[in-house]
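Format notes (please read before filing issues)

Several people have asked whether sequences and structure tokens are stored in separate files. They are not. Every record keeps both together, in the order shown below: the sequence lines, then the token lines. Line labels are part of the format and must not be stripped during preprocessing.
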Amino acid sequence: MSKTENTLPIPRRSRVPAGFQEYEGDRQFATTLARGLELLHCFTPREPVLGNKELAQRLSLPAATISRLTYTLMCMGYLAQTDSYGKYRLGSAVLSLGYPLLELFTVRRQARPLMFELAAETGGAVSIGIRDRLSIVYIEAIRHSANSVYPLDVGTTHSLAGTAIGRACLMACPPREREALLNQLRVKTPDEWERHGTEVMRNLAQYARWGSCVSVGEVYPDVQAVAVPLGKIDRGETAALNCSFQGKALNESWLREEIAPKLLALARRIA
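Then the structure lines:
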């Protein structure tokens, strides 16, 4: 057998970002644009400043590719340099890009005073969330107390599988779409599914009885929440309504029997 026959082929590096493998080879899919947008997603409240080396590791891309992306995004205002050499943070263009989208959700203006009422009555935080791929992003959030140490503001993202609002958003989806999302959670986020899958399926099975979904101490040990679907809101987005509590004794029955009916009543007023 020749040396050539013994040589195994070198696996081809995927051009599309992780999680978008179904678009591999799709000529309509703009890979460079996708990489740039995924790069922006790397910046979080926990990691607001990142350098090219860290970004290259997170995106599994060559340093030269990352350098071109960060330079271009900085020139366009989507990234800004920090005082530390070679480090970046999100630029103001990201904020100006998101604001027009938030303004399209007119349900926020209608819901805000009603959410304030419920937050004051229950002592909890009331939020509206929509799905962003396999996460939930808040488009409105009202807190009764400013003492929360966990992210609860507009624009923050949360687990689709691990949160009450994520599960309620799943219940707002048509059955086929919901099943497809459950399959994506199993395949694309196996760690999330291993941690939360059992509770996801329990919530879905009990939804017909309660009309709500709960998460009790799963993402954060002292946080509990109950949520209900809102259905389709502005722009046809699937949304859910959530009421969460931090620092109270964990009590699923209380969430189901005391808080969920108030949340359902609020959902009917908003819809």
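For reference, the curators noted about this record: DSSP finds ten helices and nine strands in the chain. The chain has two domains: 10-93, 101-270.
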